[in-house]
Specification:
Length: about 170
């Protein structure tokens, strides 16, 4: 093994360890919140696409956990930001941790991928750009990824919170 390969492998292992640590800190923080709110939920941790991913799931059905998702995921977004801040406080590093509650983001990701695919089909048939409704950064990222996978380009336009995706012809 060359020296460059060894350091790249060590760097990858360090990143994984750091992301696992972020997940552990986030899980502890979220456990505390669940206890305070007197809600039941299991915490699942993973590392996906170079970021820690933490999910709160429940065997009891997700009705209780829906309070933590809120309307259009607003409470989920706020909890994710608070969790990132808790990780930052412990590590001193900015976190890109992704939080999902009761499968909300997973379901939303599937819906947004489908929306991206429909926009791609419309652009391919009309040859004209298609503007989508305003979305959160998470939602825009999912659509951009779906458009890229279909072989087209997309851009974000506008200012938060009215920022939206435009799917462009090839």
């Amino acid at each position: 093994m060359t020296e460059g390969t060894t350091s790249a492998a060590a760097e990858g292992a360090d990143t994984l360890t750091r992301l696992e640590q972020e997940g552990e800190i986030a899980a502890d923080y979220l456990e505390g919140l669940l206890d305070i709110a007197d809600l039941d939920g299991d915490i699942d941790m993973d590392v996906e696409a170079d970021r820690a991913s933490v999910s709160i799931i429940s065997d009891m059905g997700s009705r209780d956990l829906q309070k933590l998702v809120g309307r259009d995921g607003e409470v989920l977004e706020a909890l994710q930001e608070l969790t990132r801040l808790a990780v930052h406080r412990e590590t001193g590093d900015r976190s890109r941790l992704m939080l999902d509650i009761a499968g909300y983001r997973a379901k939303k990701r599937a819906e947004l991928s489908e929306l991206g695919a429909k926009a791609v089909a419309e652009v391919k048939s009309s040859g004209e750009p298609v503007k989508l409704k305003p979305m959160t950064p998470f939602e825009r990222k999912v659509v951009h990824d779906a458009v890229k996978a279909a072989g087209l380009r997309s851009e974000s336009e506008g200012e938060e919170p009215q920022r939206f995706v435009v799917v462009l012809p090839a």
